[in-house]
Every structure is written in C-alpha cells, then in structure tokens.
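Quick illustration, no need to memorize.
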Amino acid sequence: MSSPALQTNESIIEPTPGALLRRRIFGHSGLVIGAIVLLVIFLVAIFAPWISPGDPYDQVLSRKLIPPVWHESAKATWEHPLGTDHLGRDYLTRLIYGARISLLIGFSAMLISGVIGTTLGILAGYFGGRVDMVVNFIITTRLSMPVVLVALAVVSLLGSSLTMVIWVLGLLIWDRFAVVVRSATQQVRSLEFVTAAESVGCSVPRILFSEILPNIAGSLIVIATIEMAHAILLEAALSFLGLGVQPPEPSWGLMIAEAKGMMFFDGWLIAIPGAALFALVLAINLLGDGLRDVTAPENRN
C-alpha cells in the first residue's frame, strides 16, 4: 500500500498592527458611540451659522415661551421646533451655538491644565528627589483648595467673561494630569531605552520629549478627555451660579440658570439644555474610557 499523503500546514496570516487596532476600536461599542456623538456635536458647533434657524441673540417678546413641537399646545410651531425662551429667543438656535461655548471652554481649559500638569508631572517623575518633593507639595496644595469655591472667588474679584472662565478653570484642574504623568514617567524612567539614551549622551529635553513623552501619550489622552468633561461641567456650574459665561451668550449652563424660575411650569426650558450637556459629557467620558481600554497593554496583542 502507498504511504499516506503528507499533510501540509497552511501558513497562518498574522493580522497587521493597523488591522488589530481597527478591530479593537470598532469592537468597542462605548468608544464608537462616544466618538460618533462627540463628532456630531462638534460638527453642529462648527457649522452653527449655516444650520441654525436664526440669530441666538434675536429677542422678540411677542413670541416668548413658545413650547416645543411635541408639547400639547396651540402655540407650538415648527418655526421654533424646540420653542423659545422668556425673551423670545429661538431655543434650537441657542442650543446649537451653546455647543460652541462648551467645546471651546472644555478644550481650552484642558489644554492649559494639560501643559501645566504634564510639565510638573514629567519633571517630578524623571528627576525625583527634591524636584519630586516640590512638585508633590504643589499638588497637595492644589488639592487642598476646592475648585468651585476658588473659581467663584477669583471670577467675582476679577470679573466674569469667557476668557476669564477658561483661564481660571485651566489653572485649577491640572492636578490629575500631574499625578498620572508623574506615576507614568516613573515607570518609563527605569526602562532600557531611556537608560540607553542617557548612556549615549542625549540631552534631558530630548529624553523627555523624544523618549518619555511618546510612551505616556496614551495616559495623557485618557486624562485629557476626563478633564475636558470636568471643565465643561464646571463652566455650567459657574454659569448656573451667575459667575460664568454672562448673558446674552448662549451657554448651556446659563440657559439652565435662566430657566430655573420656570422649572415647575415650563420644564422643557431646563430639560433641553440639560439633556445636551448630559449627552456631551457622556460622549466624552465614553470616548475616554474606550481609549483607555483600547490602549491598555493587555489589549495590544
């Protein structure tokens, strides 16, 4: 009898790193949902002048407090799908332009706090010793100050404006950046490629920016999304208390504050901007959680 045929092993095609990354991203439902919602809000903010039905500052008292179209009222009209406020301003228009303010404040405050916190954290984690002690003292001092109370005090003393709110929030919410970056830098500091860069005489700035910073970028991205959502909520709280964005700017927090006196009679005035604020913060948090899961070392294989 003839000998049995030899079985040939089929070559196994390994997926490329790009394919694995796409699989992890699109396989994470929270990340996809958060990214889509955030992208929609971002596009709405960018194209606000073209998609909004009117001027967010246009006041017509004869049309004040028109309810939304789903409301059982003869005053409801598709000319104002989300109704109008107590000054007759179109609510959909103000909601669309309010997305601009929330995204601007969230991104700008996150950028300022990220620069401060990352600088302090990477210096403390790399140099250690006295530098680490000084940075830890600064972080502890910052953590001992309540953010909302300090922001209220500063804004009430120096005046309230969009620029002031951005700078106050950016200078107050950098502590999480500093703590996370310090810990991540300490872990990367002892790895072989950093030691090799030091042994060949690379300068400290080159080591920090070329060797350490790229390897902690994943942690930075996650913290950035968290702090962006934090800044948006803080701005809404300050505007609600009357010391944030000032009228007649279409801030979502200010819209809630202006409607608090009518919450038991026209609840939609609070529910609509509140739902928009909830959707934006939830989308940012879902995106941050998804990026954390996707970039986790145990999920890279």
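The CA atoms of residues 222 and 288 lie 5 Å apart.
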